[in-house]
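REVIEWER CHECKLIST
Item 1: Sequence provided? yes
Item 2: Single chain? yes
Item 3: Sequence as submitted:
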Amino acid sequence: MTLNIEERNAVIEYRIEKSLLTLKEAKDNAALGYWSLTANRLYYSAFYLILALIIKDGDQAKTHNGAFAIFSRKYISTGLISKEDGSLYRRLFTMRQSGDYDDLFDWESEDVLPLIPLVENFIATLLSIIRS
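Item 4: Structure as written out by the authors:
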């Protein structure tokens, strides 16, 4: 898919809005004690912003692993994003997978609550790169 500048900017803004709304959903679900759903929403809030970043650079990912591969190659490997943030994103992906697909498994508050401020910082970092 080839996008012109206006289309690309519209998609980027849509992904930013979706990321921020999904972060709010994560916090709302945390307040209700839905820890697996909170983990899911934390992952997707980061994922949507990674998609925006990839689109900004003219790339496209068709899968979650594809998005991580591009993100890792262009941002983590080059030092624009810290290895710790890369590890956070991979951890969120794993948590989302476990929470969504593993039978008889649910995340608990002590697993998920500490991640909220980390994801907020991650999102702030990505936003500053996207908007620069």
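Item 5: Key structural point noted by reviewer: The chain is about 75% helix and 0% strand.
Item 6: Recommendation: ____
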